[in-house]
Amino acid sequence: MITGKDEESAAIDRLDRQILHSLRIAPRVPFARLAAALGVSEQTAARRYQRMRTRGLVRVFGQADPARMPGTTSWALRISCRPGAATAIAEALARRTDTAWVTIDAGGAELTCATWITEDRRGLRDGLLHQLPRAANVLSLSAHQVLHQFAGRGEANWIAADDQLDAAQRERLLDGAEHGDPDSGACVEPGDGALLTAIAHDGRAGYAQLAAATGWTQRKVALRLAALTGSRAVRFDIDAAVTLIGFRAVANLWFTVAPSDLAAVGARLADHRQLAWAAAITGATNITATALCRDAGELYRYLTTDVAAIPEVRTCETVPIFTRAKQAMSLVDGGVLRGPVV
Fold it and tell me: Its GO biological process terms (predicted)?
């Protein structure tokens, strides 16, 4: 459990939030360029990041992007379980390598998580969708295939709240960043296992560290990582301890809109600063999103202003997140990020 003293020690300021925002935009940005963009010394930027990482507030990671894997589909699951079983089920789901964003919602009555299903060589699919309905403590399962993730400003801006980088800072941050070729054809291969494990544990590991972990030369590491990130077969991102950095009213939103309005509404939602993620899904509710707000009052204002201003939204179900068991890759214990599941 996180005590009042722990929460006080985890408090972050404007510079910390701008570092988090920078890492959300460019997870492997060199500290020198990060410092220049923020107007601080390289030592200060590095020290602030390491302090947040040590305290379990942020983790930079790299992973093979499931969306780029042939035969793989992404799903959002809503799971109703027997009273008292939510924690055990959430912990079991969190330890799997094919899950992310495992949460206990609605005061413990429901769990949600993301999962990926991949066809085998025979074209058959197996995984969570087939295993969960047979679990004794699962009462019902609602599975929604993710059809399209909406790209927008919100997916990077949510973490900084009102302390976002301005346009000039973003330009300096991305100056010199490499731009790969998504059509280059590079894909994850069995021989990349050691590299993927290393970047899962530390997405900011240097080439020397990665060379030591893989047994490759630094040049080979650099070339292989550039090829995989350039083709988008591998991506880098951050996990953040959302409660400890100040977001205490977090909710999953389930929207219903007409099919003719799906693209426009999704694009508009994705630009909302309060939404870290928005996607089109199958099912009666055809857009899902995750809202992160400072408190219940801010969540209420968001729903009654920004969401209410979109007339095409027919319904919006708001399901508060009670606790988190896993972020994209990191386990969560008492609100603090722990090691990755690899």
Answer: response to amino acid
Partner residues linked to 330 by β-bridges: 340
Q: Which of 185, 186, 184, 207 is nearest to 195 (CA)?
A: 207
In a domain, 330, yes or no: no
CA pair distance 198, 211, nearest whole angstrom: 10
Read off the CATH number of the domain in which 291 is found: 3.30.70.920
* DSSP state at residue 159: G
Look up residue 187 and give its DSSP letter. -
The total number of structural domains that make up the chain: 1
- Is 27 domain-assigned? no
Where in the sequence is the domain holding 291, given as residue range(s)? 149-158+241-324
What tokens appear for 170 in the block? 């973003």
pTM: 0.91
Buried b (16+ CB within 10 A) or exposed e, 195-222: bbebbbbbbbbeeebbbebbebeeeebe
**Could you report the per-residue pLDDT of 150-175, keeping only the tens digit for each?**
999 998 999 988 899 999 999 999 98
Give the residue from 331, 174, 301 showing the smallest Cα distance to 342: 331
* Length of the chain (residues): 342
Q: Is the dihedral of CA 85, 87, 92, 96 positive or negative?
A: positive
The reported pLDDT for the residue numbered 118 is 86
Sign of CA dihedral 169, 172, 173, 179: positive
* Helix (H) or strand (E) segment spanning residue 114: strand 110-118
